Structures
1.
Amino acid sequence: MLAVLGLLVAALALVATGCGGGDDSKTLKIVSDLPLQGSNLVQSGQMVEAIEYVMELADNKAGDYTVEYESFDDAIASTGNWDEATCASNARSYADDDSIVINIGTYNSGCAAIEIPILNEAGLAMVSPANTYPGLTVSGSGTEAGEPDKYYPSGERNYLRVVAHDLFQGSADANFMKNDLGVKSVFILDDKELYGKGVADAFEGSAKEIGLGIAGHEGWDKDAPNYTALMTKIKATGADAIFIGGVSPNNGGQLVKDKVSVLGDNETVKLVVSDGFVLDSLFKDAGAENVNGAYGSAPTLPASQITGAGAEFLKGFQEKIGVDEDIQVYTLYAATAAQVALDAIARSDGTRADIIAQLFATNLTDAATGSMSFDANGDPAAGTEQLFLADGPKGTWVWNKALESTS
Amino acid sequence: MTETSVPSPVVVHRRPAVSDRLRWIFGALILLGLGYWLISAAVDEPERFAQVTVIGLSNGMIYALVALGYTLVYGIIELINFAHGDIFMLGTLQTQSIFADGSLQIPLLFFVISVPLGTAATVSSSGLEKTYAIAMALTVSVVFCLAINAAIERIGYKPLRGQPRLAPLITAIGFSFILQGIGLSWKGEGRIAIPQLIPDTVLIGEGGTLLDFGSFPYYTVRDLMVLLITAPVLIALTLLIQRSKPGKAMRATAQDRDAAAMMGISVDRTISFTFALGGAIAGAGGVVYALYVGTTYFQLGFRLGLIAFTSAVLGGIGNLSGAVLGGVLIGLVAAYNDGFGDARWTYTVIFTILILILVFRPSGLLGERTPEGQ
């Protein structure tokens, strides 16, 4: 009995030392929360490397604080995709660990919708390098009732993102279709998921505003064997363009393939896709000749367009990971998120609350992707939207130009 | 308390005639509504209606091929072989290996054994190379799926003969997940493209090589391919079951297992034969799907298996013609809804129709043919 009591006292003493502080009070921890399984790994693995490189350059210091970094995975091996239960349990573990002050994540908006409220109640900051679903920060077309307030039960904001949201993308795409491609009537398809439906609704809202004709708006079923019957319907509407909102792993290759087989190539009936389709894997899934000539938009600057301090960072990073490795779309945005995190910690008093306040007061001029500051919603003060053109023979998306957005 | 209760005689309550009549009126109204919707679509846009019908027929024939496997096994041992859809999925993956790598692949848990069979076939391969690849895919996929289904029966179902029905059912669900796991470790979790060996050349319709008319590509070489592979498989299967000795043994076992055994039929061997046959048809279905659709992934069998199983139930489970009818009907309903309704609700529509049909004809359109149903 005494032995048990002794063990208990010893355990309590250990816990007390752990929570105590002493020299540890100057050590803070940031985590990243990304899907690190399957095909996601190409992108998210590089994002982790970029964050590690930022930490290395800063020598794990932010002002007077020593900053530790740990990478967490929100995907499961069986599907290779983010998982609701994993997102929730990850968020709860960050909330419970007092040393964690910022979560750099998530990659998927659906996962963010689960994590933000949990972290919000714990007063813990979250900076996403890749979420583009508008409803996480703003209300408007393409968002659901009660958004974004339902994600912030404490009434205070704790979430920021370094990429522009999809209202911006929807508006830019609608303007591009009407003014540059001369589209008269567009048929909209979405994958019925939070992100896909969000960007498609945002596009529809903007298209109506600028007087671009809508031939129809439907969701596709990712498990259907093919979409030829759906495409014959689109053909019958006389639409001269299709806008796709969604992610290509949701049978996007089949969708694009069937679009071309029924409606003709992307010159005859124009095809514009959201950033979830701007992946090189689409050329393999759909057949390069079927993707050729499609346009895709993304809220990210390609590596080739990065200048100034960002270009320096990119050069060093490229040397670190190997010159043959292609820089993925969101990699530099993960670096920016890490730089924003270190900058805010350096200016803070080390508490979670002050770190959130300092994040909103960010004014970085030399981040990996250029200048970075935020509006009151946590969105970048100056968002960007870039246009890419699918090059079939090369099997890749080629940067075309920056897009104009009215959102 | 001391009184002994006398069991009351079983009284069969007939449903009140009014509710019966209401049920029929309700059913007739829905049928009329559906009929009106389809006829008006056909009158308004006859060309597109024809095109959508062809798409529905081709998809339906693929569903039918998978449905046959469910119905064969159910007909003989009244087991819903949930792993059947996944065997079909492995058939599509094997076809992909043969087309893309030119090799037969045997997936083991952590590695894959590759047996080269020739060179990879692509769209631009010569006609002879393509024919060889397709013939090889058909042979290999059929044997591969046959072997897996036979092995599953030997390992998982045979020891459970005579056990409560839930035991093999749960085993079937277990095998379904194991096969998905094999598919996942074999080809990864993403969707994979299968080289399109059959061109999408239009035979009848806009720019058709046989008949050039209208504004839609009504009938393509790919649609013809589905028919050219499916029809002989169906005819061969019907002949096998109706005319051959093993077919007779299958029918006898399905009707009365004990009597069949007494007549000298090896019931165990007949059941194993049925599973092997089901596997072979799944393998052929996998090749047709690969050629017609052109993409696959490890979870393909789950949804397609569900649709195929539904087709089998719709037509009357255990009934071969029923499985074909059910498959084609579901293919048509899905295509009509995708083409004239809203694609978001396709599966809701399919299953609503299924529920309605089951309410009026609980044993399916053509009726069950099982030992119990006879």
2.
Amino acid sequence: MIRCRLKLYITGHSPRSELALRNLRQICDRAFDGNYELEVVDVLEQPQRAEEDKVIATPTLIRVAPPPQRRIIGDLSERVMVLRGLGLWDPDLEATQGDR
Amino acid sequence: MSQTSESTAASAIGATEYQARLDAVFSVARDGLLAVGPDGCILDANPAAAEVLACADLVGREFGLPLVATELVEIDLPPRDEQSRLAEMRVSPTLWAGQPAWLVALREITAQREAERRWQDAEAQQRQILDALQVHLVVVDQHGRIAAANQAWLNFGERRGLPGAVAVGQTHRAAMALRTGGHQADVEAAERGLRAVLGGQAALYEQVYPVQTPTGPRWYLLRATPLQWAAERGAVLLHLDVTDPRQAAISAAEDRLRADVQTALARREAHLERLSRTVPAPTTAASFGQGPLREELPEVWAVLARTFREVLLEAVEDRAFRTAGDRSPLLRHLSEELGTLRGGPRDVIDLYLQALRTFAERSPDVRREVAAEEGRMLALELMGYLVTYYRRHATAGAAGPELDERAEG
């Protein structure tokens, strides 16, 4: 069962974009045990998608599901900060998973 | 979100005054400033933010919850004229209209990053150029410590098995000690020269010094020139292998000397040749209607010439080995032969010239020069014996052997 669906807006393949994607995958792999969907949108290739979602700058990460939508922008390196920003932080689950 | 300090500040000066101050900062700040609510929506934005984000209508739009793990984070801005752009984002908790919010500061650093990239590219290019040079190059600081070095310099240390001795941070003096094999005079001279350049007393210092290598000595030119960067003073030091140019210069000098010697010898031989032609046929021979022996009796003359050449060879070797041989008996015998054949001064000069030509064909220049000097002395001695021969026969009233005897001899 998919626990969340995310959409990551990046700009091209800049080092910042690559780093954001790598960090996010590590966070999600650990937090959702692979049960998540991540769509990556390059605003250079799909500017209309960015326009539709009114993305102002990147990296912007949008929690598409579960609703309501939430978005964060900036540094995606800190796991707890990212999950809290997305409203997906679950201290109890963290405690059962331990520090793996 | 913790806005404790902001709440305290707002309480101290009053919420209205606090907001007034924030508004003032928004209006004058050159950085783009956003007030972002807890839901990620933009509460307010200054004109600079609209410029940075390329969006005139920011208020009410969803920016997203700004995340900055450390002091700042770099984010990508919407491209302008198809050029990617970049900004630094700083985030601070604040109160906006009395409610918790995030103050987001955006500073575009596209031009700065581009300048840095170009500088890094230029530096990398310069580094590649310096590393491609065979000359050993180092930059030292004002204390004579190596601040930078090219690959050729570092390779030298590695070849010597002591890469650490020439590495960045070491003194140039220590490196010189390694390069010169500890030759103190060269090390001290280089140090004095470097100090003069670093101290501003000299605009240039040059020193040639030898370096012993497994394939023999190599010669290096040390050239130190001042280098000023920021508030520091240092020096650029080149260690250029000048062995080949130096050898070429020595060879060129030797070639010039050799050419001078050859010219002098050729001039002297030409002079003697002219002299031999101007000297009339020997009186004794002329009286019998004879020409030079080399023309009249070439086979006999060849034997005499070989004898004279051997005598000359002995004289040259005696001089070379600093021995003293007695050649008088041979010369007397030769004078007897010449006298018997009615030989004269011209024949003596011919013998001398013939011997010199042999040396010219087979011997180095120095040996030729010695042969010219020794041959001249031998020719004079031979001439003296020949004169004695004729005097003896004149005193005795004898005219010497007849022509037909000479022909038979």
3.
Amino acid sequence: MKLIVENLGLNRASEEIVKDISFELSAGEALIITGENGSGKSTTLRGIAGLLPLNSGAIKLLDENGKQFEGQPREYCHYLGHQNGMKTALTVRENLDFWQKFCGEPDLTIEEALEEVDLSHTIDLPFSYLSAGMKRRVTIARLLVSDRPIWILDEPTAGLDAQSVKMFTALCQAFCESGGILIAATHLPLGIETEKTLEIKASN
Amino acid sequence: MLALLKREILLSIRAGGGALTGVLFFLAVVSVFPFAVGPDTKLLSHLAPAILWIGALLASLLGLDRLFAQEREDGSLDLLVMQSHPLALTIFVKALAHWVMTGLPLVIATPLFGIMLNLSPLGIGATMITLLAGTPAISFIGAVGAAVSVKLPRGGMLISVLVLPLVIPILIFGVAAITGALEEPAPFTAPFLFVCAITLFTSVLGPLAASIMLRHSAD
């Protein structure tokens, strides 16, 4: 599997913020996008996740034989944005259960996924009861409950303590070893062995 | 998609009782009319179908502004639009859930309010059937309004202004059908079929239009 991004150009409010981003990632590779605040890291990630219309360029997802995957690349991605995408009125189990069913391709069970992020005891608590860091960890568990070959992570470690960051890095490492492609915007390197970096400079 | 329906219904039960709000608003609208009209029961029963329909229409608009704005605020909207399911289908299910939690309780509460307005049993039956057939269309049209105003911080008023002109045909045919059931020689079937047709039509066109809006309002 190969993800190819060619000459990506993206607009925010009719101003081109991201220009000429190109990279290629094979199965098992990770890309860390760095750059100053406002340089267009999030915009790039949202473009790859299919959440922004492309101004120019193309995103392709090819299999081993060089054939394009069916449908849009975004359908093969997990996106972890600034917000958690969880409902505060529902319990942790209900939230994860919904995303697992809605995203399809179930992988780990909800219990196993929460075990991975060390939050098994919160399974029946309303999401609103959790602290910011715990909410983030539940959101990370969402990546584990359904199987997607690409993870797109925007500041994934925001709000996590040192121990949780370590746990998260291990999860990312395991994901890449199992043949996943990971793209993350972060200020700290995740320490994945197959890690590449891409620095975005503010275009103005 | 069943998971989405379940989640939507759970949310509206948990978060402040969405179903109850609609019915209470309906009660408020309907119960002030007898005071305004005065002690003329004949006039009241004559006006009852129109009052019930207006009340149901306004109550159905409640909560429409939250339909996508809330999803956008907590980041769920991004995840909803990324999936391989057709976005129009996702919106259809959300609109359906909105109807189940606001429109359907109104239909169930109609007999009670019909009695308050001195409506005959036949009139109550006709009102329930036309509301059952017509209120889903308000949710489907409302989904378009909600998609248009998803980025606005206070889109509720705008949605009402956008949606009300579009739902007026349903109001006209709905009330006409009830009048047809109660008074000869006005027909019941023809306007009732129009109500059904509008609901079917909007159930396809509404989600489609809303999905195009949501894709283009990405930021």
4.
Amino acid sequence: MSTSTSQGVRLEAVSKTYGSETVVRDISLTIPQGEFFTLLGPSGSGKTTTLSMIAGFTLPDGGRIHIDGKDATRAPPRDRGLGMVFQNYAIFPHLDVFGNVAFPLNVRKVPKPEVAKRVAGALEMVKLTSFEKRFARELSGGQQQRVALARAIVGHPPVVLMDEPLGALDKNLRYHMQVEIKEISRRLGMTVIYVTHDQEEALTMSDRIAIMNRGSIAQIGPPREVYERPGSAFVARFLGEANLIAAKREGGALRGAGGAWFEVASDRPQAAGGQVFVRPEKVSILPEGGAPSANQIAGTVRHTAFLGNVVRYEVTLPDGQIVLCDATNASGTVLRQPGEAVRLGWQRADALLLEA
Amino acid sequence: MIGPTLRTAALQLLVVLLCTAMLAPIIIVVIASFSGDGYLKFPPDTLSLRWYVRFLGDPRWLASLWNSFLIAAMTCVLSTVLGFLAAYAMARGTFSIRKTITALLLMPLIVPHVVTAIALYFLSARFGLIGFKPWIAVAHSVVALPIVLVILQSALKVVDPNLERAAMIFGCTRMGVFRRVVLPLVLPGVVSAMLFSFLTSFDELVISLFLAGIRAETLPVRIWNSLLLEVEPTIAAVSSLLIAVTCAALLVEWGVRRARERTLATRN
Amino acid sequence: MPLRLAAKWALIAPALALLLLLFITPIGWFIWESLTELGSLEEVWLETQAVLGSRAILGAILNTNGIALTVTVMVLVIGYPLSYALSRARGLAFSLVLLCIVIPYFTSVIVRTYAWMVILGRNGLINQILLGLGFVSEPVDLLYNRTGVIIGMTYVLLPYMVLTLYAAMKAVDQRLLQAAEGMGAKPMAVFAKVFLPLTLHGVTAGSLIVFILALGFFITPALMGGPGDIMMAMLIEREIELSHNWPVAALMTIVLLGITLALYALYGRVSDKAEGGFAR
């Protein structure tokens, strides 16, 4: 249970099938010690089953799981040396806060004075000192969340699993807890495997994100990379708003509707076409009268949404496709009205060619 | 608006009358048991404890009380243990034939006790088990099991599977999960199950009638045998004892449940 | 944490074994052995015809169904208003009404039967009141006849009905009644057009359960009935205890079990729709 010499978590071709349905398909991952790693995906993507197999609640049908350098594929949960925060907190209702946080230590027969010291330390870390005698029913959702967190870290496990731990909290508290969890994990140098379906949360907290889709990992990488360099339309869409503009290869160039042509970062000339990906915030409205060049399209404003710091335009292209453009609400910005004709443009470096 | 008021008053009167009628027989037996008269009469002319004295001074009555207690205690342990295991399996496992299993497990409540009793008698007579108390307890467990199951299944609904997962990840074995988490949470249900299975056996007559023989005559069997002869006041004293046991069991059950509700009640 | 295949069967096996070995098997074995005692299938068939054709047995079957039906109706008529009051009562009133139903419910059947024997006897409370008020000149026979059986069984079975109906009534959405009232329905109309139809499945389930239990009754009719009130369960007991006539007992058991299980299957269908439970 020490944090210094551990080696993180490694999954090798792990699979799980229920009946005729393969929920997890050949997943391989290496999570180094100290990393904040997020499994992100829609419900049914296999992220919860993957976490459940790492925890030992579900046995994989194939593949191996190594925790801290040891093969833990078939080890019972208690021998994996993990901490865990559950979606609904799973606070023991018959124990008070002290009893809950002390639980992992008491089960492992840690001497009483040591238990008291470590529980106090864990409670201090989650800012719940002086709550020892309360029961779960006397705590707010946020406080229960903190108890669950304290219980997960009190034994100094090298790896802590978190299953949508913030799902039940309101937005404000959520942000607060995101910062706190991240802070604690950094301070203790522990590996965190975090499951969520909230892309914003994943982007805020993670060192690396694995985006899961239908039992497989669609892409894996640091937040900025998966956001700006998605490998597929699925990843592009799942991580926020994405423009995916149809393009065809004609004479070596990628052509779109209304005479536009595109240039993208790392083009694959052998591809016959596909979708040009560009995030709305990378798209800008061009001033009147510039010379036509690559990555420019003409359209008509269909809808203008004033979001405060950003103005979002929905622009209809000649072929009916809709492109989103997020313009910063900088000083002196003139709002374009629906019906206005505009020209949009973006940098080549911000565009990618994805398979249709 | 005299109509609705009158109707409400009429309904209230009816309910009071019916409730009185429900409780009256039990109260009358208890009062009659304190009669000082030489034969059963209600209301009694004089009051005394003579029927209790006679009951407690009669070795046959005492022996049947002891038999009943012993058999009920064994039934209570056996049916609660078997019932708990089955209820836990039903709560945490998935069975494709769940409906069939449930129907089978509840069947002893539906099948007339006479049928169960005769079939068991048929079996027991061949193996010389008539009058063997542990065997009677096993037989009583057949009819106590469904009651235990119903109680424990609803008690187990309260235990979130994630609590068990949490206990396991924090170091518990299956037994540890049971001892540290499941048992403390379902304890009130287990207490109810034990009390009601005890009562079921303690009050059971038909199966005992066939299986008890002379060796293991239980209190209800002894009452039955006496009633076939005459309606004597000693039976009122014995009945009062059975009523007291029932009330005590209900009181304990109520107390345990209340205490638990207070501990576990959620804030909102 | 879900149980693995072996674990869940290992846990449920002892309970299933108990029921298979001490419930299903003995019943099957007793019926099988008793009937094969008669010899060939043809002989069994002849005996069956003889038994079912006999006056005493046919009488018992008719008696049983007649008594069970009467008791069910009585229990329903008394139980419906009582359950209604229970479903509407709050606080202390609720606790008191519940107490009046639960205490008898959990008291031994033989004690409850005995209590009514004390009340209905020739020197019992009822006769004393009737004589005292001068309504009758000599004691009325309330015991050891059909009246006694009906009163005793109604009392014993009433709690089953009340608890089943209560569950059904508690589930009725009060807003529906308010809506009906709001649309101008008179109280009787609200009851007849809304409340009664919504609790009808409870009535069906409660009546079925009471009827099923009444069919197999033994203690109360045996102690409170007269020579003309022999029910099937009593007949089975007598065939074995007195005449040691196992084949007849087995045939009677088949009839009783058949009716009971058929009605239980029906009950299963009804209560699938209505989650009304009973525990004892």
